[in-house]
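User: Last request for today: this protein with zinc ion, please.
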Amino acid sequence: MILPIIGYGDPVLRKVGAEISPDYPNLKETIADMFETMYNAFGVGLAAPQVGLPIRLFVIDTKPFGDDEDLSKEEQDQLKNFRRTFINAKMLKEEGEEWGFNEGCLSIPEVREDVYRNETITLQYHDEDFNLKTESFDGLIARVIQHEYDHIEGILFTDKISSLKKRLIQKKLQNIMEGKTRPDYKMKFVAKKGR
Ligand SMILES: [Zn+2]
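Assistant: Here's the final one, the structure of the complex with zinc ion:
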């Protein structure tokens, strides 16, 4: 089922996600719905707070990045085959040089900015079957994980840009909060909740 994606300004995007247990209600279904919602919006990652659930869960599929011809064949193949569910993720290490990449977010349509992040990360998480894993990632895969990990910490990529750039996108953010933005996928805006 495709779920509405929560827009910038909703307090759920600012909550630190709670850890979940294997008996979390409808977990398999929630994960399947999140993948479906992400694919429908042509995203490469989606975190549970973006569908209104303040829990430590996010899904990633970097396949669309695999078409980038500037990357090596090996990197392309890696990106084409990286589909993963992360539960109760905990960032253990972020290291290596910071590099900039033009990021966007399904909760913040029509806004893209360069964000600087470390090259390599080490993460502990449970997969969809609750197997505990500790793994390192780098490059674009690390980048997408860092963006989604921020979501379960209540952080958005717009928090990581200069105050000048923040001022420049203020009007766009205001439009999202007022529900004036019309992306090609279903969204739920803070102003449309009848408060
Ligand atoms: Zn995002």
